């Protein structure tokens, strides 16, 4: 081995050596190998050096290791060295490092079970693999399925996918995904959803045929072959399933840690359901058949939920509820049968205990009798030639009989379910072709192998033979195709092993023969095997230590089989009497299980065509069914296997080999031993061996030239690349047997590619060394020159620095001397000033101290004298008061005594009559005299009073003068006394000061020292304060800067939040648009499907006579008045066609309604936002209003309070004047008498003054607190700008209201007569008045003065507030006057408008009034926008709402009136039409004759046209036909004005509007829309047609908007264009219909463009080398660019750019709106980026550094194209951002944590799964590049773990951005448009 490559075994070469643990271990040669050496010196990867001995007999060298760039390839056949260690290492690297579970090995797909759910099976992955060649994408089960589907469609040949592998390797999952792929890609040809039924069969078969084993939680315990049928259009029409070798023994026995079939555990988990209560089930631990494994629960599996899925699958397949319950009854009865207890009676007999509960339940569920079943469970019937015996059976045999019955029932049930699943999947139409999926067990070998393993390995022998023959055939075809001489390749043929098993006298034949023997046993059968095959067959062996086993040499390994149980399992015997008991059951389903299959009924309907069953179809005699029952299991399995092989040989096979990486189900853990064992067993290594025996490496000439161009010289490169490759290869490889030249490829022997790679690497390494040498020399010289220049520069600067330092030193020395001089002078002067200041300070302090002492002494003496005076006066007054009181009391007593005596006398006299007489005598005279005397005295009193007043005034003046004089004299006397005392005191003080002077002089020095110390401390303190001040200033600046930064951050944050909200709203709007446009797409699809079905029905069942109206039309009439009017306007001659169009229009209008609802939902968010803003503004306005109300209440309160205070102030002033007059007038002694009038008046005034004083105090306090709070509120309002200030103001206003209420209550209480002061206060005032009549004493504490001053300030404040109120009132009056004037003007204007409207015709009155109302409302809105008053805005909104309600009511009334008039008009029009039929028939021919002349003559006579085109009703179809249906964009349409058809249609519509013909308008629009749909349906694949009608539809829509009369669309119109506006009809609904039509056309344009671009993108963006020589091509193995589809030519980037130019020029030529072109280009670039990125993520060969450079260059070319077309602002570049970032990711460094951080920040447009996928797929093309380590990928995943993103791997290539149609008015005047004669529209007349 490898002797031919001995020249490759040099130092540093790497080899594989065997290892016991890792199977193969890598090592490196330390020393060159020379032929003849017996030892290789190697070094392991761990660094250990070993000596590897070669086999002395064979001298075979170890396997060489492939270069690193070939490791991890998609196809194992691409490896240069094809051998077992290379295959194992490649699979391990892909599985562990790259997390890739699929790998090609020639025609085989190797699938390794990851034991983990991977996101690689979604719908996006299916779409990515659909339509792709098998070698173009990374290996996948979908690629194999696509290849089978494609070959079936191309070659018209049936296909098969053979999935094999060990239990737990993932066979079932792989088969399931293949079926899902077919169901998704092909779809169903009918409405029966066959693909869903095919997929629904999986949960059913898994529940009844899968179980948990030690190797797999969901292991298939049977083989199955599913044929998926297709029709001629390759749609799924049905399926059929065949099953093989169900493991029946699992029903009654399970090993440890295993389970029975899933269905039993699902039933037990669902036993709580009401419908399953009758089954009397419980937990799985309670039944013998489900608890033997000891672990009835699977982690992560919910059996109850799986039961629900199983039942749903049954229902979907048509098995109704009653049949399901029947199935569950049988399954539950099997569980109960397993719990039937059988007890020994004696050694040869047994019995079932009476009334066994489980047997009772079994009999109830199965509908059999308890006695019969219990009897035959313990007995059996023996038949002889003449008699029949019933014999008891021992316990063990009875238990075996019970278990056999359970197995037989389950097998029958399994077959019944399979048959009915097949019937449910049966195709109703003829099957054209099929794809079969074979899910069968792989090669098995255990410690104990029995009959089941023998059958499994027998099946694998047959499949391996078929596989080897197919591989050999493909190799032969490839060699013959390339015309290479064919040499026979020796490969392993396992036909001898198959003959050993199935030939005559083979193992199965001898087994069947032994089963027929009456006393046949396993031992006798084993002896027959030894006698027959032990000496004749080398593949058959006998174990040394056993006589009951045999060994067979299979293709994979030797297997030892134990003979125990072979005969019993092959016979599969059941007690016939037990079967008869079951056949006699009352349970119909049970009876059906044991009937002949052709008599069985089906739950899904009547009996149909039979599909293939488990065993071959019975043919021949009627009694063959009984014979069939006697066939052995081995014979049945052999027949089924032969049938399967015939089917496979008639199809094209595709192979999937599933590998189990470890036995512990650890995710992504690779066990080399187990993997090698399975690779040997599944035939992968045999494929490698067959390939390696010939020419395994195959390169096209172009690939070889591109890869090894570096090995060629310039002279070797010729124009013919094939000849160039031949010449170079002959020079590089001398042995011509190492390669062969084919027609299109070069074939290499194993190892030659590695040799060429070595030569290429040596050449590149030498070139690198030369480049490094040159660059290092250049770098060293550049470094030297830099250092030299730097040293010169440093020297120059150093010398200059030294010179500057010398000059600086000299200057500093001179400066120091000068500074010293001035410093010394300053110190001396400072010292002198300090001493002088200290002396002056001491003098000043001393003198001040003396002066203070003197002043204090004089003050104390003066105060003492005052105290003495006041005390003496007080004592005198007290004595006087006491004396006075005593005298008064004595006088009172004396006078009282005298009065009593006099009274007594008078009483006595009064009693006497004489006394009365005396009294009456002369009484009248006395009275007259007294009257005269009173008058005289009154006159005298007046004179005396006047004189007295004058005397009192003069006396008061004199008294005042005397008092002043006396006071002056007293003061002078006191001053004299003081001065005399002062002289003496000053003398004494002078003496004392002289004594203290000496002491002061002594303290002088101490004080100077203290002053100096104090000065130093103060200076230090000042410096510290300066420092602190500086720090505070710095902190202040920092705080200011921080505040500015925070304010800036808040501003930026608010902007960012606003921007995010705006983006969110935009995204929501785009989502709504996308949903709406998706609805339109779905509607279009359903409409097309409806048309197709309608056509098919019409073709299939043609009906004579009239066509039926679409049923949707009648239902739509009730939904829309618009459509009802349209239906009434239809004419009888075109009823069918027009009604169909009406149906389309009704569908569109229904969609329009739905769209309007969606748009309402869409705008709800915006309305909600507006409503929230209005609520916020309303709240602010409400706060302002409340604030104003509170302010007005406060002002009202203040004005009331001001008035009250003014009145009270006047009253107090009046009372104060009265008091002053009384006190000044009664200053004498008598004034203080208690009974005098002055005393009484003064007492009353003082009491009232006391009360008022208390009241005013309270009021002053209230006013002050109110003023302070109001001032704070005003300041707060001025400083705060945010709306949160309003609640605080309101709170303060509430406090102000409370203060107002308190003040009013206090004032009322003070004014109440019940509010009396305390007697203590009155008595105190009385005492004060008695003691001191001077009123100045009364105001000693200044209370009245404070009250008076407070009242004056309050008056001023209230006056200013009164003036402000007056000004506001005047302003409000002026505003009301202005409002009144405006109302008058508005009234006049309304009157004028009313007069004008009355002059207009009735049709125009409504429009004019609405126009005026809109204008008025617009003006009012503009005025209110400039108004800041919230109250006005609120009132205005209320008035606007009222007006809107009134207008809506008027509009509804007018609509009702218009409808009534229209109906009457239609009735009259019909009557007139019936009367004028004859006249119309006679006139119409003449009109049609004169019609063509008008367009020619009108332009000559008319000078000014109105931009309208007139046509007749009968010419409408001709118009649509010539202008839409038969108009071709190329040729005639190219030379027209862009959008001319749209202009013509609109001009025709204008004339219909001008003549007020609603039927004509509706008919024209309906025909136009339907015709556009028809032409797009007919030529929808033509980009020019779709683009042409997209442009014209948009132009027609813009014309409807531009001439609609809406102000928003009339801004850019000319005066003439405004005159051409529509006057009679509002076509807003049709505008919406046209907008929907434009959206559908746009989506069809995108699909058409995508179909054109799709084949170009991958080839042009990824595969084609735009920059030649950048990327080298690696070998790709057999799976390169398969020939399943003929070569259509390669596309380049130039092809894509040419196609983009063609798209752009076509759209520009058709006059498409620029904004719409931008949206189309954006969609184009998105498709390019998405398709390119998806292919990059699924192709490992494209993920390299050079490919990243290639992609970035291609993207730059696309950006350059955008710049040339001025389309950089259309956001197309942003759609390529994921692709750009993926290309950058391929080129950046991928080693350190810094690189990981850079990648995470750079790749923000890629998802985490995409980034990890690219890193896993990264593949070096040269040895100089490094792979991405697993640690680095884990770091990336950790950093991106917190990203919130979709887990989807691929981009959605079907996504279409929502399209918008911005309004684009046309400047073209309608009256200037000329109609070309080429359009054949001569019947149109210009108006």
List the helices and strands and how they pair.
Elements: E1 14-19, E2 23-29, E3 39-44, E4 49-53, E5 63-64, H1 84-97, E6 102-105, E7 108-112, H2 123-129, H3 141-155, E8 159-165, H4 171-186, H5 194-209, E9 210-211, E10 219-220, E11 223-230, E12 236-244, H6 262-269, H7 288-291, H8 303-316, H9 321-338, E13 343-344, E14 350-351, H10 357-366, H11 370-377, E15 379-383, E16 388-392, H12 395-424, E17 433-439, H13 451-481, H14 495-502, H15 507-516, H16 522-533, E18 540-541, E19 549-553, E20 558-562, H17 566-571, H18 576-583, H19 588-593, H20 624-630, H21 633-649, E21 652-659, H22 672-682, H23 684-693, E22 697-700, H24 701-707, H25 721-732, E23 739-741, E24 745-748, H26 752-911, H27 913-920, H28 923-1100, H29 1111-1117, H30 1121-1128, H31 1135-1225, H32 1237-1279, H33 1285-1311, H34 1319-1331, H35 1335-1338, H36 1343-1399, H37 1402-1425, H38 1430-1475, H39 1477-1490, H40 1494-1501, E25 1509-1510, H41 1516-1525, H42 1540-1554, H43 1558-1578, H44 1583-1602, H45 1615-1619, H46 1628-1663, H47 1693-1709, H48 1714-1737, H49 1745-1764, H50 1772-1775, H51 1777-1787, H52 1793-1802, H53 1808-1817, H54 1830-1839, E26 1885-1886
Parallel strand pairs: 7-21, 8-17, 8-21
Antiparallel strand pairs: 1-2, 1-5, 2-3, 3-4, 6-7, 9-10, 11-12, 11-17, 13-14, 15-16, 18-19, 19-20, 22-24, 23-24, 25-26
């Amino acid at each position: 081995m490898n002797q031919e490559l001995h020249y490759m075994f040099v130092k540093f070469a790497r080899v594989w050596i065997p290892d016991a643990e890792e199977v193969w271990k890598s090592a490196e040669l330390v020393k060159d190998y020379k032929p003849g050496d017996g030892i290789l010196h190697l070094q392991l990867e761990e660094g250990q050096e070993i000596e590897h001995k070669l086999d002395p007999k064979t001298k075979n060298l170890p396997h060489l290791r492939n270069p690193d760039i070939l490791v991890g390839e998609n196809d194992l056949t691409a490896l240069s060295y094809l051998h077992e260690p290379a295959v194992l290492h490649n699979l391990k690297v892909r599985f562990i490092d790259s997390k890739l579970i699929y790998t090609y090995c020639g025609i085989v797909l190797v699938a390794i079970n990851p034991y983990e759910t991977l996101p690689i099976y979604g719908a996006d992955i299916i779409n990515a693999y659909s339509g792709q060649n098998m070698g173009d994408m990374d290996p996948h089960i979908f690629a194999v399925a696509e290849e089978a589907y494609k070959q079936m469609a191309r070659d018209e040949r049936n296909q098969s996918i053979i999935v094999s592998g060990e239990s737990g390797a993932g066979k079932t999952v792989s088969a399931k995904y293949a079926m899902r792929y077919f169901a998704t890609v092909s779809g169903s040809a009918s409405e029966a959803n066959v693909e869903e039924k095919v997929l629904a069969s999986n949960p059913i078969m898994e529940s009844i045929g899968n179980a948990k084993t030690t190797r797999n939680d969901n292991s298939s315990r049977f083989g199955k072959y599913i044929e998926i049928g297709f029709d001629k259009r390759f749609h799924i029409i049905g399926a059929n399933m065949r099953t093989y070798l169900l493991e029946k023994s699992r029903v009654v026995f399970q090993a440890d840690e295993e389970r029975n079939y899933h269905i039993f555990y699902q039933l037990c988990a669902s036993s709580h359901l009401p419908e399953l209560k009758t089954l009397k089930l419980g937990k799985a631990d309670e039944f013998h058949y489900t608890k033997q494994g000891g672990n009835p629960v699977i982690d992560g599996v919910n059996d109850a939920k799986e039961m629900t899925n199983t039942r749903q699958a049954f229902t979907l397949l048509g098995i109704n509820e009653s049949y399901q319950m029947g199935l569950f009854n049988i399954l539950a009865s099997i569980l109960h049968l397993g719990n039937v207890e059988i007890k020994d009676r004696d050694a040869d007999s047994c019995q079932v205990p009476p009334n066994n509960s489980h047997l009772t339940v079994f009999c109830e569920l199965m509908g059999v009798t308890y006695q019969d079943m219990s009897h035959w469970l313990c007995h059996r019937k023996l038949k002889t030639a003449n008699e029949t015996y019933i014999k008891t059976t021992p316990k063990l045999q009875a238990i075996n009989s019970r278990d056999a019955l359970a197995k037989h029932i389950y097998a029958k049930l399994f077959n019944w379910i399979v048959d009915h699943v097949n019937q449910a999947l049966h195709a109703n139409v003829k099957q054209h072709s099929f794809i079969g999926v074979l899910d069968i067990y792989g090669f098995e070998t255990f410690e104990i192998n029995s009959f089941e393993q023998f059958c499994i390995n027998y099946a694998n022998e047959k499949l391996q033979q078929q596989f080897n023959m197919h591989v050999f055939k493909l190799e032969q075809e490839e060699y013959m195709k390339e015309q290479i001489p064919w040499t026979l390749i020796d490969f392993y043929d396992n036909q001898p092993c198959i003959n050993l098993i199935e030939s005559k006298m083979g193992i199965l034949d001898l087994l069947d023969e032994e089963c027929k023997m009456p006393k046949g046993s396993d031992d006798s059968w084993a002896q027959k095997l030894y006698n027959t095959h032990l000496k004749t067959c080398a593949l058959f062996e006998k174990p040394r230590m056993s006589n009951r086993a045999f060994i067979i040499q299979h293709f994979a390994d030797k297997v030892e089989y134990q003979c125990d149980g072979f005969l019993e399992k092959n016979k599969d015997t059941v007690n016939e009497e037990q079967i008869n008991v079951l056949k006699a059951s009352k349970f119909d389903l049970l009876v059906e299980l044991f009937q002949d299959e052709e008599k069985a009924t089906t739950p899904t309907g009547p009996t149909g065509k039979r599909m293939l069953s488990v065993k071959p179809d019975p043919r021949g005699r009627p009694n063959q069914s009984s014979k069939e029952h006697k066939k052995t299991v081995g014979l049945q399995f052999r027949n089924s296997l032969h049938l399967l092989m015939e089917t496979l040989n008639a199809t094209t096979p595709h192979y999937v080999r599933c590998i189990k990486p470890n036995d512990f189900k650890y995710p992504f853990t690779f066990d080399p031993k187990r993997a090698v064992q399975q690779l040997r067993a599944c035939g992968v290594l045999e494929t490698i061996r067959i390939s390696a025996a010939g020419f395994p490496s195959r390169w096209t000439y172009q690939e070889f030239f591109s890869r090894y161009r570096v090995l060629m010289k310039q002279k070797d490169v010729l124009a013919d690349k094939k000849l160039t490759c031949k010449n170079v290869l002959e020079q590089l490889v001398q042995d011509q047997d190492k390669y062969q030249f084919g027609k299109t490829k070069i074939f290499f022997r194993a190892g030659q590619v590695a040799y060429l790679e070595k030569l290429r690497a040596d050449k590149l390494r030498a070139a690198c060394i030369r480049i490094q040498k040159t660059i290092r020399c250049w770098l060293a010289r550049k470094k030297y020159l830099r250092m030299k220049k730097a040293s010169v520069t440093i020297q120059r600067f150093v010398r200059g620095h030294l010179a500057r330092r010398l000059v600086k030193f000299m200057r500093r020395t001179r400066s120091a001397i000068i500074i010293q001089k001035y410093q010394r002078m300053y110190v001396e002067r400072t010292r002198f000033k300090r001493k002088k200041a200290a002396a002056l300070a001491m003098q000043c302090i001393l003198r001040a101290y003396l002066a203070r002492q003197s002043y204090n002494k004089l003050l104390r003496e003066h105060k003492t004298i005052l105290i003495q005076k006041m005390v003496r006066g007080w004592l005198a007054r007290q004595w006087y008061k006491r004396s006075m009181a005593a005298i008064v009391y004595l006088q009172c007593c004396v006078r009282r005594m005298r009065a009593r005596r006099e009274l007594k006398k008078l009483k006595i006299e009064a009693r006497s009559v004489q006394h009365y007489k005396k009294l009456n005598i002369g009484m009248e005279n006395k009275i007259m005299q007294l009257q005269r005397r009173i008058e005289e005295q009154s006159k005298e009193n007046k004179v005396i009073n006047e004189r007295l007043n004058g005397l009192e005034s003069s006396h008061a003046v004199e008294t005042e003068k005397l008092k002043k004089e006396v006071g002056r004299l007293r003061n002078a006397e006191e001053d004299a006394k003081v001065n005399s005392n002062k002289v003496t005191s000053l003398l004494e003080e002078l003496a004392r000061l002289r004594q203290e002077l000496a002491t002061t002089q002594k303290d002088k020095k101490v004080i100077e020292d203290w002053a100096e110390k104090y000065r130093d401390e103060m200076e230090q303190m000042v410096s510290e304060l300066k420092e602190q001040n500086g720090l505070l200033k710095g902190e202040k600046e920092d705080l200011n800067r921080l505040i500015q930064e925070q304010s800036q951050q808040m501003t930026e944050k608010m902007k960012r939040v606003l921007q995010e909200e705006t983006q969110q709203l935009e995204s929501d709007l785009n989502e709504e648009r996308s949903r709406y446009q998706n609805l339109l797409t779905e509607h279009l699809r359903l409409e097309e499907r409806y048309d197709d079905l309608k056509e098919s029905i019409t073709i299939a069942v043609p009906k004579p006579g009239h066509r039926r109206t679409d049923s949707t039309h009648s239902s739509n009439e009730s939904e829309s008045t618009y459509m009802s009017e349209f239906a009434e306007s239809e004419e009888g001659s075109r009823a069918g066609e027009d009604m169909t169009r009406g149906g389309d229009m009704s569908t569109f209008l229904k969609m329009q309604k739905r769209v309007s609802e969606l748009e309402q939902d869409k705008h709800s968010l915006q309305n909600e936002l507006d409503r929230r803003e209005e609520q916020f503004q309303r709240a602010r306005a409400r706060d302002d209003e409340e604030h104003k109300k509170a302010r007005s209440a406060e002002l009202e309160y203040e004005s009331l309070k001001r008035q009250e205070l003014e009145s009270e102030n006047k009253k107090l002033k009046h009372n104060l004047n009265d008091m002053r007059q009384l006190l000044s007038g009664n200053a004498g002694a008598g004034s203080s008498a208690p009974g005098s009038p002055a005393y009484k008046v003064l007492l009353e005034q003082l009491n009232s003054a006391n009360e008022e004083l208390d009241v005013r105090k309270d009021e002053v306090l209230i006013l002050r607190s109110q003023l302070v709070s109001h001032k704070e509120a005003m300041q707060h309002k001025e400083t705060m700008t945010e709306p949160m200030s309003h609640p605080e103001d309101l709170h303060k206003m509430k406090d102000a209201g409370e203060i107002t209420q308190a003040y009013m209550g206090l004032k009322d209480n003070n004014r109440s007569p019940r509010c009396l002061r305390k007697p203590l206060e009155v008595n105190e005032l009385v005492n004060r008045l008695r003691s001191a009549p001077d009123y100045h004493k009364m105001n000693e504490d200044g209370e009245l003065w404070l009250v008076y001053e407070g009242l004056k300030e309050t008056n001023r404040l209230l006056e200013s507030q009164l003036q402000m109120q007056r000004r506001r009132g005047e302003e409000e009056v002026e505003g009301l006057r202005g409002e009144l004037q405006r109302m008058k003007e508005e009234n006049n204007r309304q009157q004028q408008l009313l007069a004008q409207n009355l002059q207009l015709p009735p049709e125009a009155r409504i429009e004019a009034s609405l126009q005026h109302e809109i204008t008025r409302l617009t003006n009012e809105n503009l005025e209110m926008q400039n108004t800041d008053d919230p109250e006005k805005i609120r009132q205005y909104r209320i008035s606007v709402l009222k007006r809107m309600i009134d207008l809506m009511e008027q509009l509804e009334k007018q609509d009702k009136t218009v409808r009534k008039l229209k109906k009457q008009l239609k009735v009259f029009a019909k009557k007139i039409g019936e009367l004028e039929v004859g006249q119309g028939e006679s006139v119409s021919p003449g009109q049609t004759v004169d019609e063509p002349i008008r367009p020619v003559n009108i332009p000559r006579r008319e000078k000014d046209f109105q931009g309208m085109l007139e046509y007749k009703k009968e010419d409408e179809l001709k118009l649509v036909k010539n202008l839409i249906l038969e108009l071709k964009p190329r040729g005639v349409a190219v030379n027209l004005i862009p959008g001319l058809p749209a202009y013509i249609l609109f001009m025709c519509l204008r004339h219909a509007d001008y003549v007020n013909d609603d039927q004509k308008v509706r008919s024209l629009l309906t025909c136009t829309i339907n015709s556009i749909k028809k032409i797009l349906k007919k030529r929808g694949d033509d980009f020019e047609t779709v683009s042409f009608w997209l442009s014209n539809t948009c132009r027609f829509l813009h014309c409807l908007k531009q001439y609609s009369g809406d102000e928003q669309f009339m801004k850019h119109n000319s005066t003439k264009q405004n005159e051409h506006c529509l006057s009679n009809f509002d076509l807003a609904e049709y505008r919406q219909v046209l907008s929907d039509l434009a959206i559908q056309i746009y989506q069809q344009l995108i699909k058409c463009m995508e179909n054109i671009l799709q084949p170009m993108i991958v080839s042009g963006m990824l595969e084609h080398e735009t920059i030649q020589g950048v990327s080298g091509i690696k070998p790709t193995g057999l799976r390169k660019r398969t020939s399943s589809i003929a070569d259509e030519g390669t596309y380049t980037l130039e092809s894509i750019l040419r196609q983009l130019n063609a798209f752009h020029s076509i759209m520009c030529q058709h006059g498409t709106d620029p904004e719409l072109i931008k949206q189309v280009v954006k969609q184009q670039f998105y498709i390019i980026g998405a398709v390119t990125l998806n292919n990059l993520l699924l192709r490992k060969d494209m993920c390299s550094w050079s490919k990243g450079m290639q992609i970035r260059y291609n993207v730059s070319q696309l950006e350059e194209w955008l710049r040339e077309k001025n389309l950089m602002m259309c956001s197309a570049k942003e759609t390529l951002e994921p692709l750009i970032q993926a290309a950058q990711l391929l080129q950046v460094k991928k080693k350190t944590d810094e690189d990981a951080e850079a990648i995470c920040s750079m790749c923000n447009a890629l998802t985490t799964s995409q980034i990890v996928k690219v890193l896993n797929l990264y593949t070096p093309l040269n040895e100089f590049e490094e792979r991405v380590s697993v640690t680095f990928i884990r770091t990336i995943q950790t950093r991106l773990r917190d990203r919130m993103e979709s887990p989807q791997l691929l981009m959605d290539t079907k996504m279409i951005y929502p399209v918008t149609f911005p309004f684009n008015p046309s400047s073209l005047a309608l009256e200037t448009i000329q109609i070309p004669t080429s359009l054949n529209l001569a019947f149109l007349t210009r108006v």
